[in-house]
Amino acid sequence: MDKILQSTGENQDTSVTNDGATILKSIHIDNPAAKILVEISKTQDDEVGDGTTSVCVLSGELLRQAEQLINQKIHPQIIIDGWRKAQKIALEALKNVAIDHSADFDKFRQDLYSVAKTTLSSKILSGEKDFFANLTVDAILRLKGSTNLDSIHIIKKSGGSLRDSFLDEGFILEKKIGVGQPKRLENPKILIANTAMDTDKIKIYGARVRVDSPAEVAAIEAIERQRMIEKCENILKHGINCFINRQLIYNLPEQYFTDHGVMAIEHADFDGIERLALVTGSEIVSTFERPDLVKLGTCKLIEEIMIGEDKFIKFSGVPLGQACTIVLRGSTSHILDEAERSLHDALAVLSQIATEPKVVYGGGSSEMVMARAVEEAAAKTPGKEAIALESFAKALRAIPTIIADNAGYDSAELVSNLRAAHYNNQVSAGLDMNKGTIGDMAELGIYDAYKVKQKIVSSASEAAEMILRVDTIIKAAPRKREER
Question: Is the pLDDT of residue 89 over 90?
């Protein structure tokens, strides 16, 4: 289920999401142990993009199991030693069942598609998961193995439905071209800058000027105008026909560029010009006295396009061939924000598969494989460590239990049937939540990224171990200020 996050600030902004990392970093937490779980959720989101809820659930379940063992007078160090062995066994079992189709492009693309569908199944895009799974796979395959998602630009545009979203090659900038300037340029020379283009007007609030007559004010303004014209001349000495500035371009320089047939785009936000500099192969400059040291950008075509009722600028045929733009459509800003988060998760997961092209069966199947391997090791382990190993296996089985509970089915029966199936060597058996039964994940096409599952187990285990090592919380004195 989704959560409504309401800010306690003056604006009381609201957002609707079920993204674990977004929820956890938005709520106020005083408990220092809980803050550790928030941190691992953030790390999971930053590194692999998905599994933010699973990592907290598994860590919490491990701590619940540890509490029961401590009540049985088992020392935390014995539990930790058992968990470390269990983690190695579980990850080895996960590695053994991982599937790698990187040698066959068609099968590899199908794996990406299946993982994208699985990732989007719990998101707002689940109703259109087939459509968005194809869209994200096409975007990721353009990266050609890179994990740099900066090449994929996401634009949110209210209006239409989610189904109206599309992927476009090249880069789309949410700005307008200046009045009277060219609306289309082929093979342009692009200069991207972050400089003030408003010095043709005196900043009334930034300076105090004393004059004896209006003529002196006019003389000051004339000098300012001349300085701005000289700056524009220096810009044109670069031999460009497209000028993009991070800051505003006021009337005088805009008119100057118009007279000289140069396309000028103002107030491109910093994120926008950073991406644009990346995809066009240019550098962001602030001074213009040395044209020989400036690296200009280029592309095959710049043109003005319409999306909905608004005008945008499209850069086609950019040197960074993998660059593309995903235009998201939706009825409200809340839907668009959540759709962007969902899409980001899917893109991040798929980009990880591009570097580690292994997938595992989803639907709780991989957790049951790991739990079985740990339980079999526990049966051969003497002493109290065996109990710690069993507790780790129970915690792993909590994931399919929660999946069944969230779907409204009898989790006790389903998980016991799933456990029996895995002990009968049905490695691909998992939970089919459409029918409420045990199904074959290979036939259903339900896969998860190997790297995501690996990170969930290792991060959750380490976080639970860190908390378990703590025996008391001490309030530290505030840091004293150094006397100067």
Answer: yes
